[in-house]
Amino acid sequence: MKQEINALNMEELELALIELNEKKFRAKQIFKWLHEKMVTNFGDMSNLSKSLIDKLDENFYITSMNVLERLESKDQTIKYLFQLHDHHIIETVLMKYKHGYSICISSQVGCRMGCNFCASTIDGLERNLTSGEMLAQIYTIQREKDIKIRNVVVMGSGEPLENLDHLLRFIELINIPEGQNIGQRNITVSTCGLAEQIRKLAKANLQITLAVSLHAPYDDIRQSMMPINRKYSIQTLFDACDYYTQSTNRRITYEYALIRGVNDTDACANELARLLKHRLSHINLIPVNDVIEREYEKSSEVRIQAFAGQLEKKGINVTIRRELGSDINAACGQLRKSYQDKEK
Ligand code: SAH
Fold this sequence. Notes:
Layout: E1 3-4, H1 10-19, H2 26-35, H3 50-59, E2 60-61, E3 66-72, E4 78-83, E5 89-97, E6 100-104, E7 108-110, E8 125-128, H4 131-145, E9 149-154, H5 164-175, E10 187-191, H6 195-204, E11 209-213, H7 219-225, H8 228-231, H9 234-248, E12 252-258, H10 266-276, E13 281-287, H11 301-313, E14 318-320, H12 334-343
Parallel strand pairs: 1-2, 6-9, 9-10, 10-11, 11-12, 12-13, 13-14
Antiparallel strand pairs: 3-4, 4-5, 5-6, 7-8
The structure holds S-adenosyl-L-homocysteine.
The site of S-adenosyl-L-homocysteine has 18 residues, from strand 10 and strand 12.
């Protein structure tokens, strides 16, 4: 079976070349073709001999994906639907900010975490994405738009910490100077709170930003929204988060989607402030995106401001996420879902 060449790091690429009776220095050339110039055909690697190109073709493939749909919002956010080699569909969002382009990539096809306000999880998990498929979301968009992406958030469909090995390889590869050279500090990974995996990630001691989807400060409310809370209570989650901060010295971002009448009360704000008060943290309030299949409604603007104000008064770092791309179903698995429903 052919191997995914763009998932190999430099050492593995060197070993592979030695096995093919080629010179080790070719690894760097090939790496640059794959990760700097982002080619999708071995034939385009113009400084390699025909015989080496043939050998590569025989043993390896380069991940590529087809753009199925491209939806551009008034605010220039673009949502891409990609089709993978096995016909699965994933979505990726490109956002333009003052300081440059950010991309939100998927880490799995579908998701099995079951959060009941999220569209990505409605049809369950199909499979993990490979590290090459995580990279290809970025490369395909950079190529077609001729841009350089500066920030990556792993916040699309899927639970990245369930796919930790591929995620770590992705971070390693996107970071390499001969390729995209995207610094760890420009990468955010979002998790629904897999406590054991957070501890594993802490051991990798990266400088990425960890974002934790908290969404409620009480177990009963969180449990009603996120089944994972039955496995890892808020206390267990915070224990893992504290371990993460101690190991990496990095501030954790907590995400909190405000849902009218569910988690936007004064009591929730107070309890949240109590939980975060002595932790190196930052809270990102998100007006929940409406999902047709879900009955939730977002909190009113006034309520969101009041909630934020209450946290601020208690000295908590808080931001309210600007809503981008809401006119193009940019939120959380909605486009993939509506595309697949149309095809059924
Ligand atoms: N599984 C990971 C990453 C993917 S979800 C996680 O749970 O963090 C990315 C973020 O989008 C999470 O914070 C998730 O809770 C949030 N999200 C999902 N559906 C949403 C919706 N309808 N409105 C607002 N945020 C939503």
